[in-house]
Amino acid sequence: MAKSDSNRVLRLLPIAVGAIAGTLLFINRLLTPNLTDFQARSDALGIIACAILILTGLLWQQIQPRLPESVELVGEEQFELQPDLPEAVKAELAWASHLLLTNTVTRSLVIWYKDRVLLRRGILPAKREITPGPILQRVLTQQKPVYLVALKVYPGRVEFDYLPENTQGVICQPIGKNGALILGANAPRSYTRQDEQWIRAIAEKLDYTLNQPASIQEIWNVKE
Question: What is the 3-state secondary structure (H, E, C) of the chain?
Fold first, then answer.
């Protein structure tokens, strides 16, 4: 269900006040048979004030655009780690996922590395397997992240069936050449440039951790 914009009332307030005040001034003018010069000047000032309020409200509509509407993602709250990973790697993955879920708009998160799902966290469906589609393959090949700002308009969204069906935005961030950090948001166009930089930095840290000799051996043991 879409959540209402919490700033909507505030942005409309000057327009409403200006319109109501202008209407009252007009009614007062009609009901006053004989106007003095003082009343005429007061009415003129009142009309100007109402016009300024309405203009301010209209400007706020443009200067403060509406926030993207968020939805309630379909799925269950989950937190799954590959059980056979080294404890240090588990701690690193848990730390990274917690930071992303609490400091960005991310609501669903999957870490896929060397053809294995190492972590699933957040709101997710029952499906756990990942079959890399064209988008994920391009991320791995080109070593560049892909940000799908409004997932529903992309035909390639079908490959993200391991995320909630109503996921609004997706970032696929490469973790070196062997994996990807896949994040889902509950609102379109909701990741900022700062978020993208933050996600890239965490992916680089995870790549370093997962490429340590002990980590590599454990991951390949899990795969076998």
Answer: CCCCCCCHHHHHHHHHHHHHHHHHHHHHHHHCCCCCHHHHHHHHHHHHHHHHHHHHHHHHHHHCCCCCCCCCCCCEEEEEECCCCCHHHHHHHHHHHHHHHHHCCEEEEEEEECCEEEEEEEEECCCCCCCCCHHHHHHHHHCCCEEECCHHHCHHHHHHCCCCCCCCEEEEEEECCCEEEEEEECCCCCCCHHHHHHHHHHHHHHHHHHCCHHHHHHHHHHHC
Q: What is the pTM of this model?
A: 0.68
Distance CA 180, CA 158 (A): 17
For the segment 180-190, what is each residue's pLDDT rounded down to a tens digit?
999 999 999 88
* Rounded-to-integer distance, Cα 215 and Cα 78, Å: 24
pLDDT in tens, 13-63: 777 877 887 787 778 777 777 767 777 777 777 778 878 877 877 777 665
pLDDT value of residue 44: 77
| Residue 175 β-bridge partners | 179
